[in-house]
Amino acid sequence: IDSLLFVCNAFIYALNATAKFVATPEGTALAYGSLVFMALLPIFFGALRSVTCSKSKNAADMPETITSRDAARFPIIASCTLFGLYLFFKVFSQEYINLLLSVYFFVLGVLALSHTMSPLMSRIFPASFPNKQYQLLFTQGSGESKEEIVNYEFDTKNLVCLLISSVVGVWYLLKKHWIANNLFGLAFALNGVELLHLNNVSTGCILLGGLFIYDVFWVFGTNVMVTVAKSFEAPIKLVFPQDLLEKGLEASNFAMLGLGDIVIPGIFIALLLRFDVSLNKNSRTYFYSSFLAYIFGLGLTIFVMHTFKHAQPALLYLVPACVGFPVIIALFKGELTEMFSGLKVQNLMSGGLKPYWLLIPE
């Protein structure tokens, strides 16, 4: 899911269904304002949830740690995957490829949306609700050589979430409606920010720097990124119609924002939140500065895109903003060495420090 989540989507591009369509200023403002708002939701709440998920005992909720080696290889892997998809769409029928992708993302989307809804359902259901516990266990071998393959614990509330998510999945599979697409896209983004952890700030800089080059090359250097994004019918991007005011929910001229522009900066912002918590101070300076930097970078991307009327690699603006702002603050506060050492963050992830600012209860 990681490579498919990040590849071929790190850009912003205004997509018109017909060449004659010209969005009204009101429609354009509503579309891009909505995209920015939707992008902020998974970053903010995913970062909060990332603080607690590392202490979960459920294997399905354990975060995946990205090392410096992973970060260095990722742009190469992403480029190969992106170009491979481009060749697939050139050689094979787009209709059949998208059919297979629809089924694949249906399964992933149902699971991601179910996981996203789970904490909310735990709060909604009354204490008297008969919540039974279940365990899905797959093992290999027998006796002393028995090895666990899958060990997943869940309850009745999780099953209710799975049922609701399946309804959304069927809706997306049959109608490809933009609202269903966005529900899945938001779930993918939130899960990515929550469950993908950078092991330190240096690794984050390597990852963002590599994808900065990747994004600029594939958007400005070739037409591969835009071609794949237009052909790829899957919830790997958030969309919002620019003609919503004229056509309502049946609108079809979309502006879109790739999930990579949310998740890539999002996991770095979540790392800075965990760093803030590890400092054991009553402030979230680095988290809020990087969060505001993300808003600035995304707004600048949209402004430049409309000024030059060309697809923009959003990471060209997001990476310098999200990395530069907190680094400058750390320099002035004398915490730059501590930020890049990663010791405090490692202590938090290993349970060495008890975080005291938990907005999402365990």
TrEMBL record:
The chain crosses the membrane at residues 29-51, 71-89, 95-113, 180-198, 205-229, 254-273, 285-308, 314-332. It is found in: Endoplasmic reticulum membrane; Membrane. The gene is HM13. GO terms for biological process: membrane protein proteolysis; signal peptide processing. PANTHER family: MINOR HISTOCOMPATIBILITY ANTIGEN H13, SIGNAL PEPTIDE PEPTIDASE. Its main location: endoplasmic reticulum. GO terms for cellular component: cytoplasmic side of endoplasmic reticulum membrane; lumenal side of endoplasmic reticulum membrane. This is Histocompatibility (minor) 13. Pfam families: Peptidase_A22B. One of its GO terms (molecular function) is aspartic endopeptidase activity, intramembrane cleaving. InterPro entries: Peptidase_A22B_SPP, Preselin/SPP. Keywords: Endoplasmic reticulum, Hydrolase, Membrane, Transmembrane, Transmembrane helix. Belongs to the peptidase A22B family. It is a multi-pass membrane protein.
